[in-house]
DNA sequence: TTCTGTCTTGAGATATGTTACCATATAATA
DNA sequence: TATTATATGGTAACATATCTCAAGACAGAA
């Protein structure tokens, strides 16, 4: 685990965080790379991955490992849920109350020590509605 | 979308499904490959991927795109939730009632057409408890 | 049966996403 | 500043997933 105190404040880190704070779209590492490169053309993709991972470890940002193969990153660290468009893969926030009780229910029915939960809705965004109709999974 | 009727029942498909039905561990494609290879040593990894994807499309099995970068597969198709061990990555079922109401809540607060949801708990499995302590995310 | 067209497979090539490595550069500190 | 541990950028390596295609297997027609 990375210590917050030992993390140097480099230009790259500042800009990565700034760019992430600008958007609510939960960009992938590669999308962050594209955003940051407009201001720091010589930044390396590895630096972006390294720092996103590091910032997620320290809790500065959130790493979402939701559907789809890529990791996504979110500067909103307060607990909240997400919805993913099955058609285009876009991920948005769902502004609904956090389901407080369900961790306790889960603790009762499993042998795990519960640390948290995440709800991911699947659906069709307004751009993709119309062209597609699929059946609900659960 | 693949038609169920047009899907031939090949030895490979039978064995992939049989092996998947044997376990409750939500194996990755590669783990399925290893399991199946014990009975069909000459099967190709592509065949495993192809057929898992196909069976997921027809609804014979469930494809889980939960935390972690790899896809996992589940022969239990009835709606249910999962818990993932933060330490070893293992995924287990959580036998708790499906939260019926939350799709409607989500529909009200978003512009998406809601198709479903999935809840993923994170925690520490009984094997990993003790060595680690982490703070809850949400 | 044998033929014929279609579906499926296995093997390898390719694509995609991520991490590791290392020489150089740089922020923090004394 | 001079020092030094840490961070960077470029590239290679790796892991996962998908694509391609010739050869094989199968179902239905002849």
Number of helices of chain A: 4
Helix-strand makeup class of chain A: alpha+beta
Multimeric state: homodimer
Q: Looking at the structure, what is the overall shape of chain A?
A: globular
Which pair of protein chains has the largest interface, and what are the residue counts? A-B, 48 and 47 residues
Gist?
The structure is a homodimer of 138-residue chains. Chain A is of the alpha+beta class and 138 residues long.
Summarize the SSE layout with pairings:
The structure is a homodimer of 138-residue chains.
Chain A: H1 11-22, H2 29-37, H3 45-58, E1 62-64, E2 72-74, E3 81-85, E4 91-94, H4 102-109, E5 113-124
Parallel strand pairs in A: 3-5
Antiparallel strand pairs in A: 1-2, 3-4
Chain A binds a DNA duplex (30 and 30 nucleotides) through α3.
Task: Give a description of the structure.
Chain A is an alpha+beta fold. In chain A, about 30% of the residues lie in helices and about 20% in strands. Chain A is built from 4 helices and 5 strands, in the order H-H-H-E-E-E-E-H-E. The first copy, chain A, has helices spanning about 10-20, 30-35, 45-60, 100-110, and strands spanning about 60-65, 70-75, 80-85, 90-95, 115-125. Chain A has a 3-stranded mixed sheet with strand order 4-3-5. The first copy, chain A, has a two-stranded antiparallel sheet with strand order 1-2. In chain A, helix 1 (about 10-20) crosses helix 2. The longest helix of chain A is centred in the middle third of the chain and has 14 residues, at about 45-60. The N and C termini of chain A lie far apart (about 35 Å). Chains A and B meet through strand 3, helix 4 and strand 5 of A and strand 3, helix 4 and strand 5 of B. Chain A binds a DNA duplex (30 and 30 nucleotides) through helix 3.
